[in-house]
Write a structure and sequence with these properties.
The complex is a heterodimer of chains A (about 120) and B (about 110).
Chain A (H helix, E strand, L loop, with lengths): L3 E4 L2 E4 L5 E7 L5 E8 L3 E8 L6 E2 L6 E4 L5 E6 L8 E8 L13 E2 L3 E5 L1
Parallel strand pairs in A: 2-11
Antiparallel strand pairs in A: 1-3, 3-8, 4-5, 4-9, 5-6, 7-8, 9-10, 9-11
Chain B lengths: L3 E4 L2 E5 L4 E7 L4 E9 L6 E6 L5 E4 L2 E6 L4 E6 L8 E9 L7 E2 L3 E6 L1
Parallel strand pairs in B: 2-11
Antiparallel strand pairs in B: 1-3, 3-8, 4-5, 4-9, 6-7, 7-8, 9-10, 9-11
The chains are: A mainly beta (about 120), B mainly beta (about 110).
Chain lengths: ~120, ~110
């Protein structure tokens, strides 16, 4: 049981280049999230998905696109990278469903992708 | 507009001391308040969480105190250890099944031996 994995771990891009970050989870979770973490800013939600084939915008969606073609995968795309997108990106997943104990709210995070845009 | 405000930004505590991190919120619809712990180079991991029907929850050396009327909650780390040195995030979410978490900006805790 690997939990939440992210690919790649590090990446350096030039301004204007594109790339896709892959998130995979093996917990059969319905909900998946993409966050970015910047110093002093906490974790900010970029996009999220409440199930296969669905996506929705979070707090800071501009410049990013996402797709959830398979339940276990959530892809984050940067079409034309900008220096402002230099950040650490975290993917998370959550079981969801009907309320049970507080654990049903728990989000499980991946190890992160450190992206630098020059 | 920041949904959850966290303080302090950084905290230095001596080994054996008590670490206290505070958070405040405005949205009264929030009904789940977790704390996440993050070590350098790792993703955040759930540490402890509370719902507003209780005023306190304790797990080992970690305690959440919740004040519903003041819309504040705090994390207390008793007998702080160097291994507790990490960044701590408070968060909040509503009863919606979307489970979207609103995070505070984080507190970097350093525990000196």
């Amino acid at each position: 049981n690997a939990g939440v994995t992210q690919t790649p771990k590090f990446r350096v891009l030039k301004t204007g280049q594109s790339m896709t970050l892959l998130c995979a989870q093996d917990m059969n979770h319905e909900y998946m999230y993409w966050y970015r973490q910047d110093p002093g800013m906490g974790l900010r939600l970029i996009h999220y998905s409440v199930g296969e084939g669905t996506t929705a915008k979070g707090e800071v969606p501009d410049g990013y696109n996402v797709s959830r073609l398979k339940k276990q995968n959530f892809l984050l795309g940067l079409e034309s990278a900008a220096p402002s997108q230099t950040s650490v990106y975290f993917c998370a997943s959550r079981g969801g469903g009907l309320a049970g104990g507080s654990s049903y709210n728990e989000q499980f995070f991946g190890p992160g992708t450190r992206l630098t845009v020059l | 507009q920041q949904q959850v405000k966290q303080s302090p930004q950084s905290l230095i505590v001596q080994k054996g001391g008590i670490s206290i991190i505070n958070c405040a919120y405005e949205n009264t619809a929030f009904d789940y308040f977790p704390w996440y712990q993050q070590f350098p180079g790792k993703g955040p991991a759930l540490l402890i969480a509370i719902r507003p029907d209780v005023s306190e929850k304790k797990e080992g050396r970690f305690t959440i105190s919740f004040n519903k009327s003041a819309k504040q909650f705090s994390l207390h780390i008793m007998d702080s250890q160097p291994g507790d040195s990490a960044t701590y995030f408070c968060a909040a979410s509503t009863g919606s099944t979307l489970g979207r978490l609103y995070f505070g900006r984080g507190t970097q805790l350093t525990v000196w031996p």
